[in-house]
Amino acid sequence: QSQGIREAAKQLGVTPFVLCFAAYQVLLYRYSGQTQFNIGTPTSGRLNQDYLRTIGYLVNPVVLACECSPNATFAETVEQAKQVSRSALEHQQWPLSQLMPMLDVQRDPSRNPLFQHLFALTHVQAQKNQKLIEETYLSEQRGAALDISLIVLDDRNGFTGEWRYNTDLYQQNTALTMIEAYKAIVDAVCANPNAALKSLPLM
Hints:
- The chain has 203 residues and is an alpha/beta fold.
- The chain is built from five helices and six strands, in the order ααββααββββα.
């Protein structure tokens, strides 16, 4: 599956981040039926050269606006995801804490005000004597601010998905089912990037 992701991303002219993000977007659309929603993704927060050697947590999340059309193809969704992520990253210098007052969003201490799901793809060093395949790691988070998060680790040899979910909202069996659905979507779009979203399998 890892090689298929790289080949499909190359065919579509995007990075594995964009392809995996678009597949995650399709998963949430198929499960919820919502055609418009937001997904957060973390950025380094170190655009300024003065911060490159700074020790500490400087990650700044940006919001990716997602729009899915049942009749759209996955290739079209990938193109939209590419444009949205590029635009968001071009404005990552704006701290989310400064944007909140400008957007006049009502705050709820129990929920993130701008997005309920998160996606990230991180490059990591290959682990010696351990073959990384498409394993899934479930990290339960009771009362988490986000509903579901997917963190994809890329060690250049393969992709590993780490899923985190809010146990106040989801049971483990539900989370496991969603993981299998995501893998089915990835397999399907790698085989046929021009498939319509409404035709993509969930199992």
